[in-house]
UniProtKB/TrEMBL annotation:
Domain (ABC transmembrane type-1): residue spans on this chain: 77-257
Transmembrane regions listed in the UniProt entry: 20-43, 84-106, 118-137, 199-219, 239-257
Statement: the UniProt record of this protein carries the keyword Transmembrane: yes
Protein name: ABC transporter permease
Keywords: Cell membrane, Membrane, Transmembrane, Transmembrane helix, Transport
Length: 272
């Protein structure tokens, strides 16, 4: 009895954490979205919720189609994408070297980690009025909000990724007589890059959040601005439509970065 139960338990344990095949993953993901949209349509068609508060999928699709036809949707996407790119790239270019330095140098870590922790707990929303005072309401203010919302988190996440470099790899490099620079460029950074890439992927999602915050408060274009205008006229179909578009854009970027990570870092276990 016990001899047959043990292999069964072993087989069950072996399946925990097992990854789905790509087709199975895609099928499950698509099915989830289809079910949610179907439930949304049923609730709307049955009149369970006032259309003022929850318009149906057809109304939302129609509102987006009108925005696409007059060109406003594409213009808003372009403006918001530009702001995201500038703010996020600026934060990343500054955060990755600084986080790497914190990860390999204990004194730099002691000097900067408490400061980074202190600042990252400050709500970025509270800085929106200050950024308007500091730099006005032009594009610089949008870049600054996105930078503030991502930079400090990136520094800490990159530092953690670097610190998790396997010690045996570093010891091997030291045994081979590699200099500190070679250790960093040949062992530490290549080992940490998959984790750094994942950190950037996560913080890119946060960047979209802070973009909308900046555009809701002080903008004359962009997706957040369009949501604000729609709110003034109670156009909930357009509000939901733009929120859905934001989600779709974020999902596309996230999946693109996942695919890029699998391709670039196939040498890491679990990414091939």
């Amino acid at each position: 009895m016990s001899t047959t139960a043990a292999p069964r338990r072993a087989r069950r344990r072996a399946r925990i954490g097992e990854r789905l095949s790509r087709p199975a993953y895609l099928t499950t993901a698509v099915a989830t979205f289809v079910i949610l949209i179907a439930l949304w349509w049923i609730v709307s068609a049955a009149g369970l919720v006032d259309p003022m508060f929850l318009p149906g999928p057809d109304a939302v699709a129609g509102a987006l189609a009108r925005q696409a036809a007059n060109g406003e949707l594409w213009g808003d996407i372009g403006v918001s994408a530009f702001r995201i790119a500038m703010g996020f790239i600026l934060a990343t270019v500054m955060a990755v070297p600084l986080g790497t330095l914190m990860g390999v140098n204990a004194r730099v870590e002691a000097a900067l980690e408490p400061l980074m922790d202190f600042i990252r707990y400050m709500p970025v929303v509270a800085f929106v009025p200050l950024t308007i005072v500091w730099v006005g309401i032009d594009e610089t203010q949008k870049f600054l909000i996105i930078w503030m919302g991502t930079f400090f988190q990136q520094v800490l996440m990159v530092a953690d990724a670097v610190r998790r470099t396997p010690r045996n790899l570093v010891s091997l490099g030291e045994t081979l007589g590699l200099s500190r620079t070679r250790l960093l460029t040949s062992i530490v950074v290549p080992s940490a890059m998959p984790r750094i890439w994942d950190a950037l992927r996560v913080t890119l999602g946060w960047a979209w959040t802070w973009l909308v915050v900046a555009e809701l408060v002080a903008a004359s274009s962009g997706m957040g601005f369009r949501i604000t205008v729609a709110q003034r006229f109670f156009e909930t179909d357009l509000i939901i439509g733009y929120v859905v578009v934001l989600g779709v854009l974020g999902l596309i970027l996230d999946q693109a970065m996942r695919a890029g990570g699998r391709r670039m870092f196939a040498y890491q276990e679990g990414r091939s």
